[in-house]
Design brief:
Helices cover about 50% and strands about 0% of the residues. It is rod-shaped, with a radius of gyration of 50 Å.
Length: about 450
Amino acid sequence: HHSFITPSFKLSYYNEYKSYLRMDAKSISQLRVFVGALKADPSLLHNPDISFFKEYLESLGATIPPPPAKEEPEPAQPEPAQPKPEAAQPEPEPMEESSEEEDEVVELDNTGVIDEVDELLDISMGDEGKQPSDEDMEKSSELRGSAMCAMSEGNAEEALKLFTEAIELNPHAAALFAKRAQYFVRVKKPANAIRDADKALSLNPDNSLAHKSRGKALRLQGKWEESMLALSAGQKIDYDDDTQELLNTIVKPNAEKLRQARLKRESKQREKDHKAKLERVRRAKEEQQKAYEAQKARDKAEREMGGGMPGGMSGGMPGGMGGIFDDPEIATLLQDPEVVQAMAAIQQNPAAMMQYMNNPKVMKIVQKLQGKFGGGMPGGMGGMGGMPGGMGGMPGGMPGGMPGGMGGMPGSTPGGMAGSPPSTNNTNNNPPPQPPRFSSCDDVD
């Protein structure tokens, strides 16, 4: 009853079955990528999803490398911080220009300026709470006259003693403090003169001698602009030729030179501040542009990795794929146009991975993705273990082995690489023909 199974029928059926199993160029490319991935990382064979393939290889006598030993977690060590593209190292602030004009020493007429700093003497300033009697004021006036005589005679110590006694009798007399300030100017003790002049002006702001004595004391200290103001104030109250000559010949010229130099410095400082502000604005714009370009590159890479793959996922990335850019190292690698171009080429044609096997940057990101997705690439990237979708099933079996083809990995996301449907969960209404069980003559009763 099996007489119809002739040798010619067997040959015809075998040829038909063999033609059905013929692989197109795309399937061959996918298989080549799969084999290349296994060569690069043989540990992929231990993925449970392709255990059938490992068993098949073992049935042919192949030696499967042992699974990698699980590394004991090392003591927690802080990973080196990954550089953030949008937070590049700040550029050094531009060094301030050493302007010769700023450091220029203004040529001044320092005639009469004393180099040594005089110390304030411990002398009486009078009792502010004292209310002098008429007798005290009369006595104070006599002491003042005696002090002026002593000063004109060159008896400095006596003059100072008499002025101080007069002040103690009448501490509210501005003229006494102004006269003692004048005395201190003559003996070149500007600090003491300024103290007495300030006291006199606190008692009487219109005391011309106090203003002039203060201005001359400031001149002794080389404070030309302040000296000009004080002398000019005294001249407005009580003009005298000697003070005006001092103003016109020494004080005003020096003060004007200092004023011009100060205005020049202030102008240059304003210009420098303005340039610094423009530089800060420029850097801020650069940082914003860098951040924009980085985000743009990440978005582009994310879109390309989420779609456009052969048989890839339409409508976004497979589960967990959207978070790969949270990895700072992946984000950094994807800033490199070379890496983005390579990943795009691999996504469009998985066989292109072979030309990047020696590119450390590309393989680095591939390893990162394999580690994130349990040893495989997302989105059906050609057959690596744990890949969602996996290689499209190759129906039937290759002559001499691999019956049933390399179907989609169990548990993977639908939408793998284009190809024939997987052998598992086959929903095709026309399953591939199975070779008949041939009977021999020995089976005939």
